[in-house]
Amino acid sequence: EKRGGALGLIGAVFGLAFLVGPVLGGILLQYGWQMLFWGPLPFAVLLIPLAWRMLPTRTRAQGGAADWGGTLTLGAFLLSLAWGLNHLDAENLTQSLRSLQVWPFLLLSLLLLPLLTHVERRAEDPIIRPVLFTTRQLRLADLLSFGAGVVEGGTVFIPSLLVAAFGVSESKASFMLIPIVLTLAIGSPTFGRMLDRRGSRQVILIGTALLILGAGVMSFLPLTLVSFYLSGALVGLGLSALLGAPVRYIMINEAPAKDRAAAQALISLLTKIGQMLTGALIGGVATSLGGGVGGYQAAFRVLTGFAVLLFLAAWGLKHQQAERTTLERNEALA
Q: Which residues contact 195 (CB under 8 A, 6 or more apart)?
């Protein structure tokens, strides 16, 4: 009965880590670009002994053979996708798509998807469990994970919009993201507790509605400091109701008990893929329309439309009672 609240805290950490990055980077950049690499090292050093002492060491009593086929195929898919996207030139998008550094790798990534599906269905212990795509609830959770990554990845471009709109430095533009960070920190545990009371459907519907409002204000209205901070707060609250806790809550309830760890990994994978695709999407749309405020606002209008699609998808989620029935059945089978 407290699972949602616990997941809300985890969601806050995930979201904050992503959004605090530009703010922390703006601070460290004032002391030289080298600090962008040296600055995070103390955190890593601190985490090593904590992880060694606190993380569980139990493993499954029985496990199948290592899924080397799935591992290699998934790695090749991610590598080819990342290579193709990273070599896209936002200023010459159409021309760069014809480059040998882009289209062969993007095509290869598309061709590897059905191969990955085939390999994982035949694997004894697949790293991507086919069972995690078998029900509508799980497929919607997968879609929402990907969509959360797309929208979250778009926030990386907000400092560029602020530089163009207000003529501030890149470091100051990073500091202007603090309202988004604060609302995300407040909203994640709040919506996490709401999960326990209302279920994932209501929380995600509220979150996607807030995202639509926030992205809509940022992309359709004249950009002023007031409109930016208002839209930023709405986006932060919306992300806090979508990132981490709600989708993980769905996966824990819906996935078989033995596949819950794999389900959490799948959420992270789909979110990261969404973030990768956003870079090409936002940069391409903004540059094709001349860049500047108008270009970035047009790109964020695309994200607004994507948030609308997520809102419509959330209507298909189970109501709370149906969620609890599924969880009780899976617990009984465990």
A: 3, 4, 5, 7, 8, 203, 245, 246, 249
284 shares a domain with 194: yes
Contact 156, 22 (CB under 8 A): yes
* Domain identity same for 216 and 324: yes
Answer yes or no: do 281 and 230 share one domain.
Answer: yes
Q: Could you tell me if 191 and 228 lie in one domain? A: yes
Helices (H), the chain: 3-29, 35-38, 41-54, 68-86, 93-97, 103-122, 136-154, 158-166, 170-175, 178-198, 200-220, 225-240, 245-254, 260-288, 292-314, 320-333
Domain that holds residue 192: 3-30+133-333
- 296 and 209 in one domain? yes
> Are 326 and 251 spatial neighbours (Cβ–Cβ below 8 Å)?
no
- CA distances to 82, 88, 143, 233, 309 from 230, rounded to whole Å, are 34, 33, 27, 5, 22
Whether 237 is in a domain gets the answer yes
CA pair distance 134, 317, nearest whole angstrom? 14
DSSP state of 257: G
Question: 21-44 pLDDT, tens per residue?
Answer: 766 777 777 788 788 788 878 888
Structural domain count, the chain: 2
103 and 215 belong to one structural domain: no
Q: In degrees, to the nearest 5, what angle opens at C-alpha 236 toward C-alphas 235 and 237?
A: 90
Quote the pTM value. 0.83
Please answer whether residues 115 and 218 qualify as being in contact, where contact means their C-beta atoms are separated by less than 8 angstroms: no
Task: Name which of 122-131, 171-180, 234-243, 263-272 the model is least confident about.
Answer: 171-180
pLDDT in tens, 46-71: 888 888 888 777 666 566 678 899 99
